[in-house]
From TrEMBL:
<keyword id="KW-0496">Mitochondrion</keyword>
<keyword id="KW-0520">NAD</keyword>
<protein>
    <recommendedName>
        <fullName>NADH-ubiquinone oxidoreductase chain 4L</fullName>
    </recommendedName>
</protein>
<keyword id="KW-0472">Membrane</keyword>
<dbReference type="InterPro" id="IPR039428">
    <property type="entry name" value="NUOK/Mnh_C1-like"/>
</dbReference>
<dbReference type="GO" id="GO:0008137">
    <property type="term" value="F:NADH dehydrogenase (ubiquinone) activity"/>
</dbReference>
<dbReference type="Pfam" id="PF00420">
    <property type="entry name" value="Oxidored_q2"/>
</dbReference>
<feature type="transmembrane region" description="Helical">
    <location>
        <begin position="58"/>
        <end position="80"/>
    </location>
</feature>
<keyword id="KW-0812">Transmembrane</keyword>
<comment type="similarity">
    <text>Belongs to the complex I subunit 4L family.</text>
</comment>
<feature type="transmembrane region" description="Helical">
    <location>
        <begin position="6"/>
        <end position="23"/>
    </location>
</feature>
<keyword id="KW-1133">Transmembrane helix</keyword>
<dbReference type="GO" id="GO:0016020">
    <property type="term" value="C:membrane"/>
</dbReference>
<feature type="transmembrane region" description="Helical">
    <location>
        <begin position="30"/>
        <end position="52"/>
    </location>
</feature>
<keyword id="KW-1278">Translocase</keyword>
Length: 95
């Protein structure tokens, strides 16, 4: 069980690294956020199975992660339709 927690922490920090350093495209940022959510889901499932807890919270967490992904993709589609690209530096977010 400890190897799963070590893997969870390793992949979580890889996701944070990718989110912080690959911020040129909005799609890459959304993919790294989804990678972090999947790692959190994996870590929660390992911890809950370790302590013999019920997994209803995991279903709620996974559905919230799916909703987050859908909202991010809808924002990406609307920005590509209005600006023509997904470069994060070309957006004027202060208007």
């Amino acid at each position: 069980m400890e190897i799963y927690l070590i893997m969870f922490m390793f992949f979580y920090f890889i996701g944070l690294f990718m989110f912080s350093f690959k911020c040129k495209h909005l799609l890459l940022m959304l993919l790294s956020l989804e990678f972090i959510m999947i790692n959190l889901f994996f870590g929660l499932s390992v911890i809950m199975s370790m302590f013999f807890m019920e997994n209803y919270f995991l279903m709620i967490f996974f559905s919230m992660g799916v909703c987050e992904g859908v909202l991010g993709l809808s924002i990406l589609v609307s920005l590509i339709r209005s600006y023509g690209n997904d470069y994060f530096n070309s957006f004027n977010l202060l208007w």
